[in-house]
Amino acid sequence: MSLIVQKYGGSSVADAEGLKRVAKRIVETRKAGHEVVVVVSAMGDTTDELLDLAEKVVPVPSGRELDMLLTAGERISMALLAMAIKSLGMEARSYTGSQAGMITDAQHGAARIVDVTPKRVRDALDAGYVAIVAGFQGFNRGTGDITTLGRGGSDTTAVALAAALDADVCEIYTDVDGIFTADPRVVPAARKIDRISSEEMLELAASGAKVLYIRAVEYARRHGVTLHVRSSFNNNEGTIVTNPKDGEIVEEPIITGVAADLSEAKITVVGVPDIPGKAAQIFTIVAKTNANIDMIVQNVSTATTGRTDISFTLPKSDAATVITALTAEQAEAGFDSLQHDDQIGKLAVVGAGMRTSAGVTAKLFTALFDAGINIEMISTSEIRISVVTRADTVNEAMRVVHNAFGLDADVPAVVHGGTGR
Question: Do 398 and 185 form a contact (C-beta atoms < 8 A)?
Fold first, then answer.
């Protein structure tokens, strides 16, 4: 008997019919002889609606109470799904994150898993039940408080449970048929990828691909969990995220996929004295805010002034805090001013084949030039090239680059559901 962990996103359990469809799939899996653990997200846009409601009540709710509010969405999903499974003649037990042993640090809104002790889940499986776990949430032993894992937390919950229970596979169910060469909502000609390395998936996730979140991919790679991303709307094979063994010879495609991200802003620190230690001083100030910095570009200093500009990108939600922190220490840091730009978009092309293929950068830049799209920042890794453009051009940039690298499929991709919110 194999153990399968299945995760269902909000679009898969968006309404009563979705819950019934998911319950039927779970029962079929159980009847096929597998032990089944299910992780569920909140229904549809429930989390966003709860956030909107909280902001109407108070502009800046406390992290503890916001976590208490947001975890209600997953608890609704898990209970309703257990009811639907029981109506089909199969026994099920639902558990909150804390009941399932998801132990986290004390960071409200973005907690990290520090331990997984799924005794109650294991006991339910041994008794022949389907175990259903609320995703996105955990429990801090020190404070005794409920915590949430941040966006994509249900993916991370599923992978963590799969690792702790030594599952054979972790199936991530969504509203598309797998991982595509681009977001099929933006690029209808996107092609499904049958297999992708965890290394490439990490880069795509970090660059804005929403089908899998980066923390879940990192956790899966670290603990050797096999991921299978597939649709909850059909029985088609999806995409396997592999962890190639050291020394394994695989002929990789030059470019695996294209991703875009509209969630970042750019801050430029203008007039920084071009002397040793100033960049360190500036980014030490930024680090105190716990903001995640992505791309960094420093211009050549002006000979007449001996000053330079440093630009960096970060999540839009962190920009105000970082600007406040830098402004407070402007005199000590010695820079002239700050510029904030939240109308940028990041485009990335990813592929392990870049390591041994020349001309990728030239083809990327030529495609953007031919489309009249300007590049503002550039960043590279061994298997990724990222550029920053204007927000209103990034979707068009993704389409033209996708076409330029020969990734377009003959048949349009199908998106079965979801709002994309």
Answer: no
- What is the value of pTM for the model shown? 0.84
Q: Please, are residues 102 and 111 in contact by the beta-carbon 8 Å criterion?
A: no
**Strand (E) positions, 276-396?**
296-298, 307-315, 337-341, 344-350, 377-381, 384-390
Give the number of other CB atoms < 10 A from CB of residue 209.
24
Share of the chain above pLDDT 70, in %: 96
**What pLDDT, on a 0 to 100 scale, did the predictor assign at position 152?**
85
User: Could you tell me the residue ranges of all domains in the chain?
Assistant: 3-174
For residue 178, which of 409, 421, 334 has the smallest C-alpha distance?
409
285-306 pLDDT per residue, tens: 999 999 999 999 988 877 678 8
Q: How far apart are CA 62 and CA 54, in angstroms?
A: 10
Single out the residue of 95, 94, 100, 46 nearest to residue 73, CA to CA.
46
Query: Which comes out higher in pLDDT, residue 1 or 131?
Result: 131
Q: Report the Cα–Cα distance between both ends of the chain, in Å, rounded.
A: 38
| Closest by Cα among 168, 228, 155, 171 to 198 | 228
How remote is the C-alpha of 283 from its chain's centroid?
25
Q: Which CATH superfamily is domain 3-174 in?
A: Acetylglutamate kinase-like (3.40.1160.10)
